[in-house]
Design brief:
single chain, 308 residues, mainly alpha, Alpha-lytic protease prodomain-like, Alpha-Beta Plaits, 2 domains, 3-stranded mixed sheet
């Protein structure tokens, strides 16, 4: 009964995450449609930059929704590490699309700097109320996802609340840019507000794209644990050095929200198997409590060489 209840609670958590991401994705879509119309009618560089940024963020949210639904569907023993790798791969794809968008935006913004145009009031009529609404919505999603990430830590929830935080400030920036352009539309310098803000949004995209690549590549190639986590393992082993005879090394890998750790230990051949199992179980439990999201395996080994 306890196991069934735990499974039910886990399913409820995943359904809640799925609902949050799906609702946020729908709101992004309904904001994107009128904003795209405003870009077509006005040719605003600022709104165009925000449309590309919003489209990339929707792609990231769509991938997150796919991952959550795949996790909900099960298949735990089909690909033990595969879903985490898929999560990392989707982040790389999102980063690649971001850099492709950057190339288009940079060319368009340079053109607007070289040939500045008077501000189009159509962009203001649609964009100002739209960006105000989008700012309020994304601010709400930012705090909702952040709260969820604290209750149920995962890379998806962590990425989503950071995404919503960036969208909130970006929307506010576009809102202020459009407002300033309207208030000072008769001044020549106001013609440059649009491409200048576009450059700032391009900066947001560059930082986000770099973050996706820099955080995903190490996990995709199975980078070993950070030094502080390795120290935790070594401290745990040193406090129990009398319980085993040989230490052959540690092998680790990340897969999504999970950290898989294999510790290779050698024991005295004359030692009772029951004592070995008791120590291995205690070590596993202690490390999994100290390293969040970890799955620890104690591997018995008599090989003098470090495992491949």
């Amino acid at each position: 009964m306890a196991g069934t209840e735990g499974t039910s609670n886990a399913g409820g958590e995943k359904e809640s995450r799925e609902k949050l991401v799906f609702l946020a994705l729908c709101m992004d879509f309904f904001i994107l449609i009128p904003e795209t119309a405003a870009v077509i009618l006005s040719g605003s560089a600022t709104l165009l930059s925000d449309v590309f940024k919003c489209a990339n963020e929707m792609l990231a949210s769509f991938f997150a929704l796919m991952i959550i639904r795949r996790m909900k569907a099960g298949g735990k023993f089909t690909y033990d590490y595969g879903m985490g790798k898929f999560e990392t791969l989707t982040r790389l794809i999102t980063g690649g699309v971001m850099f492709l968008s950057l190339c288009i935006l940079v060319l368009f913004t340079i053109h607007r700097f070289l040939s500045p145009e008077p501000f189009n009031t159509t962009a203001a009529m649609i964009g100002i109320p739209l960006m105000l609404i989008a700012t309020i919505i994304d601010y709400h999603h930012w705090h909702t996802f952040h709260h969820r990430a604290q209750l149920d830590p995962s890379p998806i929830m962590e990425a989503q609340w950071r995404l919503r935080r960036a969208k909130t400030f970006s929307n506010l920036l576009v809102f202020l840019a459009l407002t300033i352009s309207v208030l000072f539309e008769h001044h020549t310098w106001a013609h440059y507000v649009d491409p200048v803000v576009s450059v700032i949004i391009i900066g947001f995209l560059m930082v986000a794209g770099y973050r996706e690549f820099s955080s995903s590549l190490p996990d995709l190639f199975d980078k070993t644990l950070d030094e502080e986590l390795q120290i935790v393992i070594l401290q745990e082993l040193s406090s129990s050095f009398d319980k085993y005879e040989e230490f052959h090394g540690v092998r680790s890998r990340r897969s999504g929200s999970r950290i898989y750790i294999e510790i290779f230990l050698g024991f005295d051949p004359g030692q009772r198997m029951g004592d070995v199992q008791e120590f291995a179980s205690a070590l596993k439990k202690s490390l999994e409590n100290k390293i969040a999201g970890s799955v620890v395996s104690i591997v018995l080994s008599r090989d003098e060489k470090t495992p491949p």
